[in-house]
Amino acid sequence: MPKRVLKGTVISSKSNKTIVVNVERRVRHPLYKKTITLSDKFHAHDENNNYKDGDKVSIIECKPISKKKSWVVIKETEN
Fold first, then answer.
1. What are the b/e assignments for 27-60, b being 16+ CB within 10 Å?
2. What predicted TM-score, i.e. pTM, was given to this entire model?
3. Cα separation of 63 and 6, whole Å?
4. How many angstroms separate the CA atoms of 62 and 3, rounded?
5. Cβ–Cβ < 8 Å for 79, 30
């Protein structure tokens, strides 16, 4: 089964080797047919503390590293 890859924005990099990434997605409401934006926060592993708040990054699923971390940063994206 392939691992999921998500793109998002770093919203917190205060923890050591951990960043919090906000991933937004747009869906259409089933009843009202209006497009709404849903967002999810993911804790991701950042081995060298390279990323700061506001950076656009890609994260990939991995085996659980801790209670909340099961994602790893793979690269910084331009958009």
1. eeeeeeeeeeeeeeebbbbbeeeebeeebebebe
2. 0.88
3. 16
4. 8
5. no
- Which structure tokens are listed for 74? 């793979």
Q: CA torsion angle for 30, 31, 36, 39 (degrees, to 10)?
A: -60
Angle among Cα 61, 47, 69 to the nearest 5 degrees reads 40
* Distance in angstroms (rounded) separating the CA atoms of residues 17 and 15: 6
pLDDT in tens, 28-64: 999 999 999 999 999 999 999 999 999 999 999 999 9
Residue 41: both structure tokens together: 């926060």
User: Coil, helix or strand for 44?
Assistant: strand
* pLDDT surpassing 80 at residue 77: no
Domains within the chain, CATH numbers bracketed? 5-76 (2.40.50.140)
